[in-house]
Every structure is written in C-alpha cells, then in structure tokens.
Automatic annotation (TrEMBL):
Record protein name field: GcrA cell cycle regulator
Biased composition (Low complexity): 53-76
Organism of provenance: Phenylobacterium koreense
Positions of region (Disordered): 47-76
Length: 171
DNA sequence: CCCTGATTCGC
DNA sequence: GCGAATCAGG
C-alpha cells in the first residue's frame, strides 16, 4: 500500500493527536510502525504537539555523588552539547542528609554501613531510597527487623503449621 | 520483554 | 520516497 493523499492526511492527524507510530500503523493498516515513522520523518513532523512523554532534553544530571569519605575530586563537568532551556535549571543541591529518625532518607549513594537497608519505593525509580535509620538487627533497624524476620508463625495453630511445613520444602 | 521514536541505508 | 533493520531509551 502506498501513501495516498488520504492516508497521509490521516497519518498527519493521528500523529498530531499524539498517537504512537504503532497505533497509527495499526489503524491505517497495511503499514508497519517503521513505515509510519519513516513517513513522519519525511514529512518533517517529527516533533509533536501532545507527546505522551515529555521526553527529557537528553540531559544527564550529574549524579550528586556524595559518598561518605570518598575523595570525590570536585571535577568540573563540561557540557559540550547544547543544553536546552529546560536543562538550564538544575541546581542539584545535594545537601548532606542527616540520618535521623525519618525513614527513607538514605539513597543508594548515601547508605552507610550501619544504616537500615530496608528498601523504600520502587528500586527502578529515581526516588528510591533506603530506610537509613540506625541498624539494629541484621541489616535493618528495629522496626524493619521485626517485619523482615517474622515468617509464618503465630495465628491459627491448625493448618498454619502444615502450611509452613509444606512451604519449607520450597526454600 | 514490552514499548517508544530516531536513524541508517539498500532498494 | 520507501521501510526494514537497527539503535537508544523508558
């Protein structure tokens, strides 16, 4: 199938509406998403009005990089590439967080040897943290050690034991 | 592994 | 001009 004026028109509309290339391809039929993307490019409408994802300015924020006692030379990071307007605002305070009683204050970089390593949040997310409070038992603080080391026991003597026993086989 | 768009390059 | 293959992310 070729690109008739009609199909091109549909393509433009759908693309401007924010549909993904694969969705457009499926709707038009007879073309793959690659074909759609290729056409979109050729038509010169690569940018979008309503992108599903803001699409970061391709700017890698320099990691705070504040371990504990690492030398961490204050190296200057020069950006040879053009920084977009949005990227201009990136102060990166990176204050030395004090480890107190507030959970979730330790990042993977600031997590010290004696801090509770109970994970908080989505590990694949940027705001992933660890509990960070003082370790008490194992790698966890008092509170989380209780949660971590409380398998099956308690509650319903009947059945629970058998369940635990059967479960144990898989460990 | 699913998805996204971007780019390349033989046709 | 076309689009599959490939790349680079999320």
């Amino acid at each position: 199938m070729g690109w008739t004026d009609e199909r091109v028109e549909s393509l433009k509309k759908l693309w401007q509406d924010g549909l993904s290339a694969s969705q457009i391809a499926k709707q038009l039929g007879g073309v793959t998403r690659n074909a759609v993307i290729g056409k979109v490019h050729r038509l010169g409408l690569s940018g979008r009005a309503a992108p599903s994802k803001p699409a970061r300015p391709v700017f890698k924020a320099p990691r705070p990089a504040r371990p504990v006692a690492a030398p961490a030379a204050p190296r200057r990071i020069q950006e040879p590439v053009v920084a977009t307007a949005a990227a201009a605002t990136a102060p990166l305070p990176a204050p030395v967080r004090h480890v107190d009683e507030a959970p979730g204050t330790a990042t993977v970089l600031t997590l010290g040897a004696h801090m509770c390593k109970w994970p908080i949040g989505d590990p694949s997310s940027d705001d992933f943290t660890f509990c960070g409070r003082r370790q008490d038992e194992g790698p966890y603080c008092m509170e989380h050690a209780r949660v971590a080391y409380q398998p099956v026991q308690t509650k319903k003597r009947t059945g629970a034991n058998e369940l635990a026993r059967s479960l144990r086989r898989y460990i």
